[in-house]
Amino acid sequence: MPQTLTSVGIDIGTSTTQLVFSKITVENTASAWTVPTVKIIGKEVVFRSDIHFTPLLTPVVIDAEGLKRIVEKEYRNGNMTPEDVDTGAIIITGETARKENAKEVLKMLSGFAGDFVVATAGPDLEGILAGKGSGAFEYSKEHSATVMNFDIGGGTTNVAVFQNGKLMDTACFDIGGRLIKLRGDGEVYYLSEKAKALINRLDIDIEIGKKASISSLEVFCSAMAETIIEIANTGSQDSIYKLLITDHDFRMTHKIDAAFLSGGVADCVANDEEDFLRYGDIGILLGRAIKKAFEKTSHTLKYGEETIRATVVGAGNHTTDISGSTIHYDLNQLPIKNIPIVHLTADEEGLNEEQRQNALSDRLGWLVEQSDTPLVALGLRGKRGYGFEAIERLAKDIAIGMKRMTDQNLPLIVIIESDFGKSLGLCLRSILPKDKPVICIDSVSVDNGDYIDIGVPIAGGQVVPVVIKTLLFGY
Known about the structure:
Elements: E1 3-12, E2 16-28, E3 38-48, E4 52-53, E5 56-58, E6 61-62, H1 64-77, E7 87-92, H2 102-113, E8 118-121, H3 123-134, H4 136-142, E9 146-152, E10 157-163, E11 166-173, E12 180-182, E13 188-191, H5 193-202, H6 214-232, H7 239-244, E14 258-262, H8 264-270, H9 283-295, E15 301-303, H10 310-317, E16 321-322, E17 336-343, H11 346-349, H12 353-370, E18 377-380, H13 388-401, H14 403-407, E19 412-416, H15 421-431, E20 438-442, E21 451-454, E22 465-469
Parallel strand pairs: 1-7, 7-8, 9-14, 14-15, 17-18, 18-19, 19-20
Antiparallel strand pairs: 1-2, 2-3, 2-4, 5-6, 9-10, 10-11, 12-13, 16-22, 17-21, 21-22
């Protein structure tokens, strides 16, 4: 029997805040005499909120109560309550993730929005969700293509590269429509820190409290637009390119078949708006500059199925995945949120018993000392075709290497990419005292630096919903 989950996506961006509700359908697609194979078989957006300007008390402080009122209003408009929501994500993006109270605001809204609505911040996940919400991900899969999605918002441009339906890379750049804010007469009243640096680099006359000439603003926007072309060309040694990198550049080079545009500025590229000060920022001028820059190239340019709503649709439809069906868990430990991942490399997994135990203990100690939570999950690739003796040895090494967890009566959480979670969980259960909780799930891929949320079981207890995310504030 299919089961339908209600999912919410809430995107708190530099410029705008918006919300969607979706229905996600899961079903066991295996035959009666085989191991259950529970899959997501359908996703549908059933409600889209109005688009609200993100409320701020000051340029560096979010209006938390104002945000809560927006969310409350849109829950009412969508005929939903937090109790109706099974899963989903609140994502705080762009310049908003750098505000002084961003972490506190996200925590407050996460508790209000539903029991398993995850809170996430950081440019990498934002870029991935936008690429999925825009349709770039599906396009790459359907056309066996390499596609780069540019989600151009108010504070940042989040870039994700998809190849044949697989995520290849992400990067983020301080390029956006609200890095400069202007009053109706053209007087500048806000400059982001990166905007100030770029203005100095370009040696143009733009400063707070003075009217900015359209020619100076066009020079500024042109520099950002040319950087987007450099990004599409997969990298540059140009000094402005380097200046505008948010936290990291691409990890590899990519020859792309198409460039997708999403985000609020994508609408300014597609639509030729006359009044460049309509939104009180440089978004329209930046859109014009990007359009001109792409016209000079041979890149195939496409607009996302979703533009300004790409991230929120991605957050509502594409954050939640489900585990494999060969899993082991202690029900009273779920749901569980914000668990950082420590991941062994393939070489470390292949070490002898003592070396593997030491590698686990060392990695665990390093993460616990640098984290604000004592609880950590172990991520493993695992090998296909592990025999029972190999699983037993692995369980023993995990129990010894993760002793710091069990000594504090914290749940021992293991996330495996291969599909032997139930066998490993039962081995761990036989080794550990009965009062030590164990959660062992499989068919989920994680890495160092990720966080995981695990929900209550669905589909008759055969699988659990999971969300892999980042938590990066003030980047």
